[in-house]
Amino acid sequence: MAAISSRLKAYLGRIGPSLVLLAAAVFFIAPILSTARAAFHKVPTILLDRHTWFKKWSLEGVRRALDEPFFWPTLSLSLKLALVTVLITMMLLVPTALFVHLRLPRARALVEFLTVLPYVVPPIALVAGVAAFFRPNARWFLNSDFALAPFYVVMAMPFTYRAIDAGIKAIDVRTLVDASRSLGGSWATTLRKALLPNMASSLLSSAFLTATVVLGEFTIASTLAKNTFATFSFEYFSRDAQGGVGLALFTLLATTALLGMMTLLTRSKSRKAATVTRF
Amino acid sequence: MSNTVEDPIAGGVLIEDSPSAKVPAVSRLRRHRAWLGLLPFFAFLFIFLLLPTLGVIRKAFLANDDTYTTKGFTTAISQEGAAFWNSLKISLITAILGVIFGTALAYAAATAKRPKWLRSLVSAFSGVAANMGGIILAFLFLTLLGRQGLGTKILTDNGWNPYKSWFSINDFSGVVLVYMYFQIPLMVLVTLPAIDGLKTSWREASANLGGTTLTYWRRVGLPVLAPSMLGGFLLLFANAYSAYATAYALNTQSNLVPIKISFFLQGDVTGRSPVPFALATWMILFMAVSMGGYLVLRKRAERWQQSAVA
Questions:
Q1: Residue B278: which of B131, B59, B19, B27 has the closest Cα?
Q2: What's the pLDDT at B239?
Q3: pLDDT of B15 over the 60 cut
Q4: Using CA atoms, how far apart are residues A166 and A160, in angstroms rounded to an integer?
């Protein structure tokens, strides 16, 4: 009797949490489903009923988006920007983080503080700063599409530095360096053969996250009038809603795939590594 | 510090790093030279973060005749009072709702025993959705709850037309709803580790000492979760206040601070108006307070999570 009532109580206690989970599932999945329908179903919602529900499903909207003359140029620019941003991030932050660990532990608090400063200057304020400082003083610099990359490095820095720093803390850097150096390895060899392979998962996760942020970044690109994939998506959506929605779905899947890959890669390497996020 | 410091481990060798006046000038120089290794990092931040930020603040206080004045800084509030108020309202509402629903969702996911993959699904999805913002999110909701949206159609067919009622995707109510799509997951990411840190043994201890469920939450659970929840609130507030792309894609005319900044930046080619820079300076101030609070509270919250791992 007592056992039954305690089980009943346990079931009743789960009603609240189950309802929360159910409501969350509806709220978070519904927009994705409606987007998929809008992308593949060529029937306006007004005409939607039992008779039209199964007709006119096609990939035409997505195909139209892929056929857009600006699709590939803007996508390729965004991919290149992502690559450049990741490369600058790695070349700047990996040596900095290693240097702080090995040579200058005194500087740790200062460096950590500086890397979270971009939180205080969000993209819309940063782009105002670009207008205030770079427009009058270095117009030539802003004329290049790749002028966006350093600002993306800054935007991503709070989480990229945290991820790289966590990767360094997770391994015994001092021992690895001493071992490699005493075996006659140069600094370059030490970095390439001992340190980087051991930090691979944290470097990869910060690279993937940076890439997704760059691919979706709209604020700075649009204010500086650059034709990236995000600004193209916005402009295209206002011209051709169905194609635009197809594009949105494509971006969503690509982003999810990138982040999913990151989770898989990091999990197989180290189970303890926390999920890296923007915050 | 004139006394010579001896390192017991190194066997009486003078420590090179000690800040002693007796350290020869050469080694003091070497000490300082180590900072040169951080030069690229400092230079990068100086050029791409500090100079733009100082540029914003300078322009906020610069009058048309190149003299400095606080006039632009204060008129920004009076002239764009409505945008300030709207942004504050949206940030407060979505932060409070985000804290409530995010914590509830994190708790539901963390305590669910079956199915086993539920918890990691919620946490992985939150990682994606919290990063989602931007224009794509606006498109998702336009297909669901826009005037021609599928959800609008279903609701209307079932007797409630949201557009004949209080809802519209292009105004305040729409922005609040859409922002919840990244605010709730962000809160899940912030509180999930804290909820995992609540050990079952604490609850048993509380029960053994005669505490009820209420006592447990009031005396143990909430105090442990409090830093994460308060920190989460500040983070969510900052996140909503500075969000631009989603609101812009929902309605390019939204009267919100970030959209006003962009509007003035794109419209004013001469770059003379202090308004966008004053608005941005105010935003930086808001961010400094709320993100500073968040980072301090995160440090506090991590204390329990570390002890939970050990």
A1: B59
A2: 94
A3: no
A4: 10
CB contact under 8 A, B56 and A245: no
Q: Which residue stretches of chain A have pLDDT < 50? A: 269-275
- Classify the C-alpha dihedral A162-A168-A171-A172 as positive or negative: negative
Dihedral pair phi/psi, residue A239, rounded to 5°: -90, -45
pLDDT of residue B1: 39
> Which of A27, A34, A223 to probe the B interface (max B CBs under 10 A)?
A34
pLDDT of B10 over the 50 cut: no
**In chain B, alpha helices (H):** 25-33, 39-45, 51-60, 71-79, 81-111, 118-130, 134-145, 150-157, 172-197, 200-208, 213-216, 222-242, 245-250, 257-267, 275-309
Among A38, A117, A248, whose Cβ lies nearest the Cβ of B49? A117
Encode B178-206: b = buried (16+ Cβ within 10 Å), e = exposed. bbbbbbbbbbbbbbbbbbbbbeeebbeeb
Report the half-sphere exposure of B212 (CA within 13 A, side-chain side). 1
Please check the confidence at residue B309 and state whether its pLDDT lies above 70. Answer: no
Flag if A277 and B128 touch (Cβ within 8 Å): no
Distance CA B239, CA B208 (A): 42
Interchain CB contact of B289 with A (< 8 Å): no
**pLDDT for the residue A268:** 54
CATH dotted code for A69-269: 1.10.3720.10
Segment A16-33, tens digit of pLDDT: 889 999 999 999 999 999
Q: For the whole model, what pTM was predicted? A: 0.86
Tell me which of A42, A236, A267, A279 to substitute to probe the interface with B (most B C-beta atoms closer than 10 Å). Answer: A279
How many angstroms separate the CA atoms of B224 and B301, rounded?
8
Residue-range domains of chain B with CATH: 80-309 (1.10.3720.10)
- What's the one-letter identity of residue B164? K
Cβ-based neighbour number of residue A259 at 10 Å = 24
Q: Which helix (H) or strand (E) holds A213?
A: helix A196-216
Q: What's the half-sphere exposure (Cβ side, CA atoms, 13 Å) at B226?
A: 8
- Residue in the block written with tokens 């997505």: A62
> For residue B13, what pLDDT is reported?
42
Distance CA B47, CA B56 (A): 14
How does residue B310 score in pLDDT terms, banded at 50, 70 and 90?
very low
Instruction: Check CB contact of B154 with chain A, cutoff 8 Å.
Output: no
How far apart are the C-alpha atoms of B172 and A274, rounded to whole Å?
Answer: 35
Least Cα separation, residue A66 to chain B (angstroms): 17
Give me the pLDDT at residue A270, please: 46
Instruction: Give the one of B35, B56, B151 whose C-beta lies nearest to A128's C-beta.
Output: B56
Distance from CA of A198 to the nearest CA of B (A): 23
CA dist., res. A168 & res. A154, Å (int): 20
